[in-house]
Design brief:
By secondary structure, this protein is mainly α. It has helices at 3-16, 19-32, 42-51, 58-68, 78-86, 91-104, 114-120, 127-130, 136-153, 165-176, 182-192, 197-213, 220-233, 240-253, 256-269, 279-288, 295-305, 315-323, and strands at residues 39-41, 75-77, 111-113, 162-164, 276-278, 312-314. It contains 18 helices and 6 strands.
């Protein structure tokens, strides 16, 4: 593997161990840093990675060191190394973590008491707890150990019995590395610190469900009523607008299944997989879906959708025209 591939392999191995992967490697780095310089030379780096059991050869460890020793100084800051391997949290995750810290830091002095953390922290949504690998108490102990380690690895002005914002963010940077799903991460933060995001999410879901019934086609009852009226109003002399409204109402009356169903019929009719239908294919799809138009009316509908007169219509464009755009709330 080239250095970039080695670095990616190291990242994946650490991520597979969850937050303990990063925390454990930090501990190995601390052990190897005899002069407390907050950096490692190549021999120290090789020994730390080897002792942590990541499975790289000495040559691969050396290649990794050279890759991270960007300025060629012969040493790498292990804080900078870990940040490079782990990568930063995205803005949404970082915002959620800072909101949690600010909720705890009631006086705004930049740090919180560990006892406050112990009395507030809820680890039920932690991935290792959900997976049954660890208990909530295990996670809390790891959580508090992280801050103690951070104090010993960094010279900051805060006393040992408090948690600084940087340390708080650092902990969740470690956790974030092993969680791919943003929504899961955000829910975990909200649950851990008893924030109101969960209630907001439930409220948003309720509004979304309401919007689903009050979309571009109207409520379910109105959809059925519209379909009935359109069917009654459609005659052999129906104009273009009435034909389009009839198609629209028929599909709408079946809800989401209507859109998916006609899309399936179009796919079946598209024998050459051209993502478009000629007039004969369109007629067959409309007939098979039981839209309820005469052959002449289906022909008129096709001509209306074939705006450029090419003799074919893209069925994706047809569906967009029938379905309409999402409303502003969605």
């Amino acid at each position: 593997m080239n250095p970039e591939q080695l670095a990616e392999a190291m990242k994946n191995k650490l991520a597979s161990r969850g937050s303990r992967g990063i925390i454990g490697l930090q501990r190995q780095f601390k052990i190897m840093d005899d002069d407390n310089s907050k950096s490692l030379n190549k021999a120290e780096f090789n020994k730390a990675v080897q002792d942590f059991g990541l499975g790289f050869t000495s040559a691969q460890n050396s290649a990794l060191f050279d890759y991270f020793d960007v300025d060629g100084s012969g040493t790498i800051s292990y804080d900078e190394f870990l940040r490079a391997i782990r990568g930063p949290m995205n803005m949404a995750r970082q915002k959620s973590v800072i909101q949690a810290f600010n909720k705890l830091d009631k006086d705004g002095n930049g740090w919180i008491d560990i006892n406050d953390v112990r009395g507030t922290y809820n680890a039920k949504k932690h991935p290792d707890v959900v997976a049954g690998k660890k208990t909530e108490d295990d996670i809390l102990r790891e959580f508090l150990q992280t801050f103690e380690m951070a104090h010993s690895m960094r010279n900051n002005d805060a006393p040992n019995y408090v948690v600084t914002k940087d340390e708080f963010i650092e902990y969740y940077n470690n956790i974030s590395m092993s969680i791919d799903d943003d929504m899961y991460f955000l829910q975990m933060i909200a649950s851990a610190w008893k924030m109101d995001e969960k209630a907001k999410a439930q409220e948003a879901a309720t509004r979304a469900r309401a919007a689903l019934d009050n979309d571009i086609f109207g409520t379910a009852a109105r959809r059925a009523e519209t379909a009935k009226k359109q069917e009654a109003a459609l005659t052999g002399n129906a104009n273009d607008r009435q034909i389009i409204d009839h198609i629209r109402a028929k599909i709408a009356a079946r809800g989401a299944r209507g859109i998916r169903g006609i899309a399936t019929k179009f796919k079946i009719a598209d024998d050459n997989n051209s993502k478009s239908l000629d007039k004969a294919e369109f007629k067959k799809a409309m007939h098979d879906f039981r839209i309820g138009l005469t052959p002449d009316q289906v022909g008129k509908a096709f001509d209306m959708f074939d705006r450029d007169g090419s003799g074919e219509i893209s069925y994706e464009e047809f569906l967009r025209s029938i379905r309409g755009r999402m409303n502003e709330f969605r």
